[in-house]
Amino acid sequence: MVPTPRVSRGTAPSLSPVTRPSTVDLIAVELRNAVYAGALPVGSAIREVEMSGQLGVSRGPFREAAQRLVQEGLLRSTPGRGLSVVRIGRDRVHELYEARASVETTAARIAVERATAVEVAAVRAAHDDLVVAERTEDARRVGDADLNVHWTLVAASGNPWLLRWMTTLIVEVRIASFTLSEEYAVRKDTAESHVDIVERFEARDADGLVSAIRANLDDAVLRLLAPESVEVETFDEPRPSSAPRLEPITPTFSEP
Amino acid sequence: MVPTPRVSRGTAPSLSPVTRPSTVDLIAVELRNAVYAGALPVGSAIREVEMSGQLGVSRGPFREAAQRLVQEGLLRSTPGRGLSVVRIGRDRVHELYEARASVETTAARIAVERATAVEVAAVRAAHDDLVVAERTEDARRVGDADLNVHWTLVAASGNPWLLRWMTTLIVEVRIASFTLSEEYAVRKDTAESHVDIVERFEARDADGLVSAIRANLDDAVLRLLAPESVEVETFDEPRPSSAPRLEPITPTFSEP
DNA sequence: TGCTGTCCCATTGTCGACAATCCCACTCGG
DNA sequence: CCGAGTGGGATTGTCGACAATGGGACAGCA
């Protein structure tokens, strides 16, 4: 599941403005998760009737939500041919990680300066999850937890722009992984260096944290581009369910 | 007019894959330009029937294009209330420029390393335009040219992610300007520091270039947040035409 | 006079339908 | 046997229509 930014009202007035997600929001989240999870294979075409049917909505709202992912660069829209999941091949990995490093290092410096105790704790917690996940040897769980550490760190910066970009980048990293592994595999991307990241962050050591992040990302690029590393674990069953099944959208009136 | 990224095939095979913009693409560009030009005032509601009518399309494609801008953060969609142009007030300017600095400085270092001669020349040309624009004393033209220098520099990095973000950031900077100036003004941003930027870039001096950019952006933030600076020029006529007029979409089969 | 409740209109959210386009399999001719 | 031409089926692109929601004006009551 892709972590999604939550609007956090900084101060606490007596009443905070109520905000509910639109149907398009819900569909977009569902779609993004589907791409992230590999339920929609990279490069594959997306049939609107089928998808919108599974979500329990008509093609109209579905197409609107899809355009959001097109803007994000996760989907591609070819005029007469419809939608398809993008590929991120070898040639683009370097640029992807340049962008990712830019966001993460900037966020790191800001977070070191301004993060609250609970935000620091959140990063630590995300790292704990990663450690637990690593024990399961489940490559996908590890990948999720890995990315979640990075996402949580960016979230700790409190910068909405960086967090928005990071939310998309996470999915693109996964797409790159899928693309390079030739058919729906998730690299077993265990990284020692995450310990450094969390420790440098807790120590509020900006330069050290940036270095740790850079090291981690460089390592990730190497693993990704390593030709058929043995460190890769492939799933015969690419998708959670054989058919790309999306949860139906129900106008949830959720209680906080 | 907002500069839009052009897909540039790096190598030159005998034939490059033909690609044409979808209708949604065209509408999105038109909408983005309208926001950028202030034709759609910040905070104002957007009436779908009116807008789509002016563009000569039905509400369907228009709504799809609008969702792209929602994803960018330029428009806001409130469930029962429809679309409106976002505001970027004092409290968010700092974060906006943090994000902008991240993109621009990263792009700068990459561009210094990898930019070709023509890309360097493009930045120089953009700067020349700025100098010319400054002579006209037209605040909006100066603003356009100013932002275009920065955009061209990011484009010179060749990184699609950075360029995509920059394309949105430019509009958000303009939105911030509109929001803070209380009704459709464009700050007269004299650009001494732009000379440094171009010179450091031409000299391929990465650190110097980054410093120049930082100085320029810090200066811009100060100008923006300076309470009612005298350096501001306000237009009584906020919009190019009194009614937000959008160019009709014609399925252009454009020749390169 | 000030507040509450109600009605109406404008606008949005959603859907189904039609036409245009594209892909694929088949057929025909060299 | 291989290529181009052709037709059918499926899918997308676009539109108009209907129901639902929200905002504002007006009337009623304390």
Task: Provide a descriptive summary of the structure in words.
Chains A, B: Keywords: DNA-binding, Transcription, Transcription regulation. The structure is a homodimer of 256-residue chains. Chain A is mostly helical and 256 residues long. Chain A folds into 2 domains: 63 residues, Winged helix-like DNA-binding domain superfamily/Winged helix DNA-binding domain (Arc Repressor Mutant, subunit A, Orthogonal Bundle), CATH 1.10.10; 145 residues, GntR ligand-binding domain-like (Four Helix Bundle (Hemerythrin (Met), subunit A), Up-down Bundle), CATH 1.20.120. The first copy, chain A, has 9 helices and 5 strands; from the N terminus they run H-E-H-H-E-E-H-H-H-H-E-H-H-E. Chain A has a 3-stranded antiparallel sheet with strand order 1-3-2. The longest helix of chain A is centred in the middle third of the chain and has 25 residues. At the A-B interface, helix 3, helix 4 and helix 7 of A face helix 3, helix 4 and helix 7 of B. Chain A binds a DNA duplex (30 and 30 nucleotides) through helix 3.
The CATH topology of the largest domain in chain A corresponds to Four Helix Bundle (Hemerythrin (Met), subunit A)
For the largest beta sheet of chain A, what order do the strands appear in spatially?
A: 1-3-2
Identify the CATH homologous superfamily of the largest domain in chain A.
GntR ligand-binding domain-like
Radius of gyration of CA atoms of chain A, rounded to a whole number: 19 Å
Keywords (chains A, B): DNA-binding, Transcription, Transcription regulation
Pfam family, one (chains A, B): FCD
Protein name (chains A, B): GntR family transcriptional regulator
